[in-house]
Amino acid sequence: MTSHRTEPQSALAGAGTAYTLLAALGFAAVSTLTSLATAEHVSLYTVLTWRYLLGAVVMVTWIGSRNYQRMPWREAARFIVLGGGGQALLVGMALSSLRYVTAATLAFLFYTYPAWVTLVQALRGAERLTMRRVAALALSFGGIAVIVVTPGPGGREMAAEFGGSATRGITLALGAAIVYGMYIPLMGWMQKSHRVSVTSAYGKIGSAICFLMLAVGDRSFTTSLSGTAWGAIVALALFSTVLPSIFFLMGLMRLGPVRTAIVSTVEPFLTAILGALVLHQPVTMRLATGGVMIVAAVVLLQFRRERVA
C-alpha cells in the first residue's frame, strides 16, 4: 500500500498544487458570488449571515461525526467572540468595498496583508528589516500606489460605474488587509494544539451571530430570497467557505507552508478573471501592473521564510 511517506515527491507536489489551486479558486469566487447575491436586492449582512450559518452547520455536522475531544467552554467562547468577531470585521469591511471598487481591485489591495504583517513585526522589533524584506515592502506599497495614485481613466470609470467614491472602497479594502494582518497572529496564538476544523467551526458560528445581529439591526434580514440569491449563497457556503478550507489543508500537508503560500498567489488573478467573465468588470493595465507588484512582494517574502527555515 502506498502511503504519504512512500509516495513519490513529484506526485505529492502535483497533488498538493492541485488541491491548493482548487482552494484558491473557491476563495477567489467569494467576491463574484457575493455580488451576484446582493444584485438580487439582498443586503450584504443577510448574505453573509446565511453564508456563515450554512457553513457552520456543515462543519459542526462533520465534526459531530468525529470523535474529537471537547474543547473547554472558555476557550470555545474565545474562538466564537475573537475568532468569529475578527473574521466578521475583516470580511464585512472587504466585501463592503465592492459597492465602490471592482472585485479585482479588492483582491489585489487585500493581498497586501503580508506586507502589513512584516511592517508591524519590524516596528515591534520582532523581525529584522533585511534588504529582501525592504524590497518586498517597496514592491507591495509601490503596487498600491500604481493602483490608487497613478492618474488615468480607470479610477474615474470605476467611480462612475459604482456610483460612489472609489476612495471609500480602497480604504475599506486596505483596512481589511490591515485587520487581517493582525488577525493572523491572534489566531496563531489562540490555536495552540486545537484542531483547525474545530476552531474554524466555532469561528463561523461567531461570524454568523455577528452578521445576524447587524442584519436584524438594520432590518434587512429575510428568508424570502430568490432562487439566484439562494444559489449564490449556498455556493458561497460550500464552494467558497467549507471546501476551500479542506482543500487548502490537503495542499498544505503535501507542499508545506512556503510553497502552498506561493501557489496561493494565483488567487487575486483568479478573482480578476471571474470578475471580468461573470460581472463584466474591466481589468485595466494599471490594475494588472499594480497587482503583479503586490503578488511579487508576497512571493519574495515567502522565499525569505523558506531560506530561514
Provide an overview of this structure.
With 309 residues, the protein is an all-alpha fold. Helix 5 (103-110) runs antiparallel to helix 13 (267-278), helix 5 (103-110) packs parallel to helix 14 and helix 12 runs antiparallel to helix 14 (285-308). The radius of gyration is 20 Å and the shape is globular. It has 14 helices and no strands. The longest helix has 29 residues, at 227-255. It has one domain (12-308). The protein has helices at 9-28, 30-38, 44-64, 73-96, 103-110, 113-124, 131-148, 153-162, 166-191, 196-217, 227-255, 257-263, 267-278, 285-308. Helix content is 78%, strand content 0%.
Write the SSE topology.
Elements: H1 9-28, H2 30-38, H3 44-64, H4 73-96, H5 103-110, H6 113-124, H7 131-148, H8 153-162, H9 166-191, H10 196-217, H11 227-255, H12 257-263, H13 267-278, H14 285-308
